[in-house]
Amino acid sequence: MQNLFYILSGLTIFAAIMVIISKHPIRSILFLVFTFFLISAHYVLLNAQFLALVNVVVYAGAIMVLFLFVVMFLNLNQDIERFKSWIPLSAAAISGACLFLVFFSAFRTSVLASHENTGGYQQGLVENLGEVLYRDYLFPMEICSILFLVAMIGVVLLGRKERVEPIKNLVP
Amino acid sequence: MSDLIFKLIFISVIFGLSLFIAMYSTYAERKLAAFLQDRLGPNRAGPFGILQPLADGIKLFFKEEFIPKASDRWLFIMGPGFFMITALMTSAVIPFAPDLPWNGQIFSMQAADLNVGILYLFGVVSLGVYGILIGGWASNNKFSLLGAIRAASQNISYELAMGLSIVSLIMVSSSLSLRDIVEQQNGWHWNVLYQPLGFLIFIICAFAETNRAPFDLPECETELVGGYHTEFSSMKLGFYLFAEYINMFVSSAVLATLYFGGYQFPFISSMDPGLTKTLLGAAVMFGKIFFFIFLFIWIRWTLPRFRYDQLMNLGWKVLIPLAVLNIILTGAFILFKS
User: Fold this and answer.
1) I need a surface site. Which of A36, A52, B202, B206 has the fewest CB within 10 A?
2) What distance in Å separates the CA atoms of residue B292 and residue B311, rounded to the nearest whole number?
3) ipTM score here?
4) Span A1-77: which CATH code?
5) Is the preceding peptide bond at B196 cis, omega within 30 degrees of 0?
6) Does A49 touch chain B (CB under 8 A)?
7) Nearest by CB to A50, which of B116, B126, B153?
8) Residue B4 domain flag
């Protein structure tokens, strides 16, 4: 179990680094899909099968396909990647460092989760997850779904074109 | 230890069976198409042309393998392989027969009994589109790219309706494990009787997900030469074509499992668990699978292809609202019954 965790973690970090350093956007996306898979494998190790599969369905199966879709249409090449000015680069570096600082201070004192203090192998099952989400945390859950609804309506509103003459018959 | 060896043997048998059935689906397709079009079909290789799939396979292996110079070489090779892997992975969670007690041990006729089996199915199905997208894009051909884009948008659109139709099925069965779902359909309690609308939506989406006619827009010959596999030759083309038949086999198995009782047959509960029960159950399961494969072929040679805007309208404006309506109806039914 321990060895499996180290192998998986090594692979995950390798794939995540490859996302950043590959020059080609399509390869970056494929490595990102691979990273999501490995993260799902970590979820399985933590007995959260439901979360693992939802991660695959939503991220690897739907969102990344749309990413790939857009990149293929844009047809980006490595040649057109220009050098950007120093201001956004340094801003990104500083904000990344701040985030790291926050994480570091938050995780320094926390106890790492393990099977002993989570709740046994039953914890990640769908039934238990449903109980927690719809009994203990019903209100935050509903708020989240309203947030999603608002985002969806926003997308429809932005994506809707002005009404033009509809094409009647493609076939004469 | 004997459990592990049994699992290995079982997985190899299922692997071989899916390849074999897919191989003979091509033969069945050609024979049935010939029958429906008043032709003879393949009849030269062996008696009744029974060796035709073998001859096709050998031909594909010996064809020249050509990789276009302007293509992305690695992704071009990866595409068909990935498509094949995702096609073969799906059968892992399908229970093919009742449990077999043998020497005091119970052997389950299912490669993996996940408690989230339906989600596993759904996840693997949603990954299937990568093989097409990668292959179509890597060919560096406009027709291939258009075919790949069509495949991707079609799969994403129909996945939604498929997922929603499964939601109402889960509401009835209140379990995500395929094994539980089959066990609940004992006797004549087939899910298709409780979820007729859900079944209709699911089977339409299954046709769209396997890229079969009337939804074979990604490889529409009259518009796109050959679609996403225009540039592929030799066994790489063979993989793309063959994976489609494996997908057909797996979707038939899923349809039989979810809606038609899987391996259950009317008097199964009066039988003692044993070899006869397992074999009979497997025979019934494969009978149902063959029926659905026949249905797939029958519809392909009966209905004309959809136009692209019709396909999108059907997916988004008809199937998804119907699936939501089905969820509401199912919920109301459960509420009033309790």
Assistant:
1) A36
2) 22
3) 0.78
4) 1.20.120.1200
5) no
6) yes
7) B116
8) no
